[in-house]
Amino acid sequence: MKNKDTLHVSRRRFLAQLGGLTVAGMLGPSLLTPRSARAADAATSGAAAKEGILTGSHWGAIRATVVDGRFVAAKPFEQDKYPSKMIAGLPDHVHNAARIRYPMVRVDWMRKGYQSDTSQRGDNRFVRVSWDEALDLFYQELERVQKTYGPSALLTASGWQSTGMFHNASGMLARAIALHGNSVSTGGDYSTGAAQVILPRVVGSMEVYEQQTSWPLVLQNSKTIVLWGSDMVKNQQANWWCPDHDVYQYYEQLKEKVASGAISVISIDPVVTSTHDYLGRDKVKHIAINPQTDVPLQLALAHTLYSEKLYDKNFLDNYCVGFDQFLPYLLGEKDGQPKDAVWAEKLCGIDADTIRALARQMAGDRTQIIAGWCVQRMQHGEQWSWMVVVLAAMLGQIGLPGGGFGFGWHYNGAGTPSRKGIILSGFSGSTTVPPVHDSTDYKGYSSTIPIARFMDAILEPGKVINWNGKSVKLPPLKMCVFAGTNPFHRHQQINRIIEGWRKLETVIAIDNQWTSTCRFADIVLPATTQFERNDLDQFGNHSNRGIIAMKQVVAPQFEARNDFDIFRDLCRRFNREAAFTEGLDEIGWLKRIWQEGSQQGKGRGIQLPTFEVFWNQQEYIEFDHPQMFVRHQAFREDPDLEPLGTPSGLIEIYSKTIADMKYDDCQGHPMWFEKIERSHGGPGSQRWPLHLQSVHPDFRLHSQLCESRTLRQQYAVGGKEPVFINPQDASARGIRNGDIVRVFNARGQVLAGAVVSDRYAPGVARIHEGAWYDPDKGGDINALCKYGNPNVLTLDIGTSQLAQATSAHTTLVEIEKYTGHLDNVTAFNGPVEMVAQCEYVPASQGNQHD
């Protein structure tokens, strides 16, 4: 039969008809109205408006309104007293021009398969195929790579995905691939890569994702709070599980304490943060440090504490090891340079008297150090993390309420007292069923690599690097599969990514939006959003406030499928469907997760209702009995019975383990290392004078919700991602508020809309991470990004040989007013769909389905 409307093209027929390809146009607003779109809404079409549908998200729980099958409004869940402004953009997440609607295959990959012209990746030309054909191609590629190369050639990765305990893309991808064969895994993450490696060596725990001292205790006991690169008010809007936002009540109480003078807050940051602004511009002491010079300031504070005998020698003697090995470096006995306030002033831009006064204030009474994550995302980020602990140890308040240090205060509602409740299980990526291809022969290459160095593996296969005491031989990757993640957002130096992408034979992306990762993929599979399926989620993260039902809001849009159904059908192609599903469908899995929670509850004296009662009547259950907690209290009270997880059981100011690794960029105690590039007189600053921050955004979660026009209308400038710049820097460049500017360095260039603001120190600019990449020349290396993705500009190097983490905040740029032609932003449309006027012929099935 002829098929002029639905554009199905098999590879066999495609090759025969290649000369007849024409451009169908953008998969954008024009396709919101055809019968294919209307069919997707058929389940609720014509019905009266449905209001109050309860579900959850990374941005909070909501009550959804549906009209004619469309999700049209999101109202805050009545139990969320501090809802995020971002929930206004959630309907756009479902209905927007960037939704992936059908399985698609890149044009040249359809012609030539893994032998395609990879320089065409990113040209945005795709062919629509059927689900059967797409999954056949997926399976055939897995087979080819395993048989041709073995497990060292395949890498899979997931990221923030969507909320929900069952529908998690990471677990489903991991299980499906594990049932087929082994692959290369990754370690670490982009958020806390340096801190999560160094801190277990120093205090025996990762620290970054753990509960912090309860806010009521901090408010009762702290006299000084030091916010070191931490912006809690901004970042607590979105959490891993559905947030309850209860932590904001404590920010209100903190604001009152600050206003009354009961608590002094000091913000060490080149920027007046949202938290600083909220607590009061004139109430918070701002130490506007030069970027990347935090360690010199820390060393100078430590030097002042020691030289003025303000440190707690008893705590250092009884709870720490290695201060005596660190002290000669601090005093300059090794290199002739005491790390005092006068020395630090030249680097930090903070006068010596201010540094000494800060040390005295911190030592004068109970001080809580609240450390963020952005500072450790720079070259040698391990050193800052280590020095936070050293300072807290010298103050001697670790384990006391309202004292010590913490690295997770801005995340997952940390500090909200945890309730006595249950934590639901989910869909695990592990399986006991053996894979079809059981080879564990990685041919001498490493089976696990640091996530932030995966581009090195693609570009430099066989290279040997150090990583946390191990030697890693980077594997020769040929195929990557991504589900629920966007490497073009989270990895640095996009032009280097594009260079590496060209060396891969096949890239498969499973997502619900046409992110850059999907545009540069070969096979793209449309997944549902969390609003098109049923699930369960925790309500509140560290607070463990309760459990929420995530009810399906609308039918799956167009041909989108749940990740569960995608991977189930993939596993069917190699006779592992039963092992993947365990004989359960969506509702069956939700019942199992609920039953496992009920069993867990019995051991804690918690009685859950039946699943049917919860799902059909209650929808939300709240736990009782919040428990107060002090981080490291047990260790302080009895270090012998409650030792830390370090070799000594104590805080390791000097680590013999690290010293024995003999790394020149991360030695046995914390040190100051100059950066490869640094503003304010540092290396490279004569050519590129501005430091670029790429911190978490105000109106998105990473790149999620960048597709929301509703939200972009609140922050975009001239249709571009904003770049924030100090008035002095703007004036020197003839830049006014609202101008379109070019931000550039030797690694790339982007356009952005200027926001001139005195919240940013001279020499500091900011573009929020997560802005979608929008090249003016498709997949060309060194294209101009028309929208403003900062990772075009960031530097792709490891923090050190220890963590090998991201160094995104070691980035210098220049900015100029843009006077060239302004092309339309096209990042938020779908691909150019190629049409072949041909008869649809199903792909040949070279395998057996069970």
From TrEMBL:
PROSITE patterns registered for this protein in UniProt: MOLYBDOPTERIN_PROK_2, MOLYBDOPTERIN_PROK_3, TAT
Q: What is its main location?
A: periplasm
Q: What is its EC number?
A: 1.7.2.3
CC cofactor: Mo-bis(molybdopterin guanine dinucleotide)
Classification via InterPro entries: Asp_de-COase-like_dom_sf, BisC, CT_DMSOR/BSOR/TMAOR, Molybdopterin_N, MoPterin_dinucl-bd_dom, Mopterin_OxRdtase, Mopterin_OxRdtase_prok_CS, Prok_Mopterin_Oxidored
- Molybdopterin oxidoreductase N-terminal domain residues: 55-95
Which SUPFAM superfamilies does the record cross-reference, listed alphabetically?
ADC-like, Formate dehydrogenase/DMSO reductase, domains 1-3
Instruction: Name any Gene Ontology BP term.
Output: anaerobic respiration
Record's protein name: Trimethylamine-N-oxide reductase
Instruction: Please state every residue range assigned to the domain named Molybdopterin oxidoreductase.
Output: 99-572
The similarity annotation says: Belongs to the prokaryotic molybdopterin-containing oxidoreductase family.
For this protein, the record's NCBIfam families field holds: bisC_fam (TIGR00509), PRK15102.1 (NF011682), torA (TIGR02164)
Please list the residues that bind Mo-bis(molybdopterin guanine dinucleotide): 160, 377, 486, 533, 563, 791
Keywords (alphabetical) are: Metal-binding, Molybdenum, Oxidoreductase, Periplasm, Signal
**What are the recorded GO MF terms, alphabetically?**
electron transfer activity; molybdenum ion binding; molybdopterin cofactor binding; trimethylamine-N-oxide reductase (cytochrome c) activity
Textual note on the cofactor: Binds 1 molybdenum-bis(molybdopterin guanine dinucleotide) (Mo-bis-MGD) cofactor per subunit.
> How would you classify this enzyme at the top EC level?
oxidoreductase
Q: Which GO terms describe its cellular component?
A: outer membrane-bounded periplasmic space
Q: Which reaction does it catalyse?
A: trimethylamine + 2 Fe(III)-[cytochrome c] + H2O = trimethylamine N-oxide + 2 Fe(II)-[cytochrome c] + 3 H(+)
What biological function has been recorded for the protein in this entry? Reduces trimethylamine-N-oxide (TMAO) into trimethylamine; an anaerobic reaction coupled to energy-yielding reactions.
**PTM:** Exported by the Tat system.
Presence of the UniProt keyword Oxidoreductase in the record: yes
Subcellular location per the Swiss-Prot or TrEMBL entry: Periplasm
Domain Molybdopterin dinucleotide-binding, chain residue ranges per copy: 690-811
